[in-house]
């Protein structure tokens, strides 16, 4: 696949096929701080789709924050809730969904996402991810002695899984969230 501006991997043939079977759904995957929530909301606005954020839906349903779920139920408890939430959300139509950063860890989740929508991997460098997340205490996995090293470790583990799940890979690079959302909206509109 050739580099097209910020969009580094956009396989049109595959995308047409995927869009046919995708019920109009777009699923964003990527690391914490990749911009899934920010870009997802903007993209939904441009494409006139309904925006959902899996983390937010879990918080709405449980009435507590993600860090508190991690504290009480551990990561395994959170992952179970995340899979339940994704199973519901993938059944809808015409949505843009920002998934949680760890959604791709489960093979079941990866398969569900691939089968029910066009999956976009928002890819960013560890330096950018670190800059965007370092001030934010809302990410339990980064509450360690050395969060930057943890981020690097998670990136190494997850980057192949995001790539495996995605139909489209977008390098977030130096572009603003708004500009990226605009580029994506244009590409997706063209491939319909
Ligand atoms: N392309 C971008 N350029 C500059 N800043 C960005 C970009 N994308 C996101 N940001 C900023 O980075 C921060 C994190 O973004 P966001 O919360 O959307 O990430 P996320 O992928 O949803 O993370 P999480 O998996 O933890 O929910 C926000 O402050 C957002 O404004
Ligand atoms: O990267 C992760 O594993 C996570 C990212 C967030 O979106 C939340 O889903 C939670 O903090 C876990
Ligand atoms: Mg988010």
UniProtKB/TrEMBL annotation:
Mg(2+) binds at residue 37. GO terms for cellular component: cytosol. Pathway: Metabolic intermediate biosynthesis; chorismate biosynthesis; chorismate from D-erythrose 4-phosphate and phosphoenolpyruvate: step 5/7. Its cofactor is Mg(2+). Substrate binds at residues 55, 79, 101, 158. Belongs to the shikimate kinase family. Catalyzes the specific phosphorylation of the 3-hydroxyl group of shikimic acid using ATP as a cosubstrate. This is Shikimate kinase.
